[in-house]
What does this fold into?
Amino acid sequence: MNPFTSIRRYALASAAAVLVLLAAAGCSVKYSFSGASVNYALSKTVSVSYFNNMAAMVAPILSPTLTDELTRKLASQTRLQVVREDGDLAFSGEITGYSSDPVAISGDEYALQNRLTITVKVKFVNKAEPQFSFEKTFSNYGDYNTNVLLTQAEGTLIPEIVEKLVDDIFNEALSNW
It folds into this structure.
C-alpha cells in the first residue's frame, strides 16, 4: 500500500471531522435531567398561587399539599426563582373534583376496591412566550381497599395522587418536546 494513500485518507477523515464539529457548533440543544425546557434568558421567576378546593367533597390537606408540591418541584427541578406572585411563569387554578367511587365489584355485587379521583383546573401563564400558556384540566387517581375508610386512606393516597398530578402539570408546562 502506498504511504501517501494512508496520509490522504487520514487528512480527508480529519477534514470531515472538523466540518462536522463546525456544523454542530452552530446548533444548540437544551438538555435537562428534569425534562424541563425553560428559556432562562426570558424567564427568571415562577409563582404558584394557592389552589383552592372547590370540589363538592373537601379534604383539608389537599390544597396545601398540591400547592406546596408544585412549588417544591419547580424550585428543585428548574433554576427559576420562586416568587409569591407575578412570576415570569405563573401557575394558578383550583381543585374541581374529589370523589371516591367503587371500581372492583365482586360476584356478589360488593365493591372490593374504591378509587379516589382528584381533578384540578390549571391556568399556566408564560409571559415571555405566550404561545406556551394554557388552561387545562388534569385528573389522576389512586385505589384503596373497601375495608379501609376514605379518611384513613387519604393520608397516603393524597400525596401519591398529587405527585402524579404535579408531574403532569410540570411536564405540560415545561417540557416542550
Summary: Confidence is low (pLDDT under 50) at residues 15-34. Helices lie at 3-25, 62-77, 150-174.
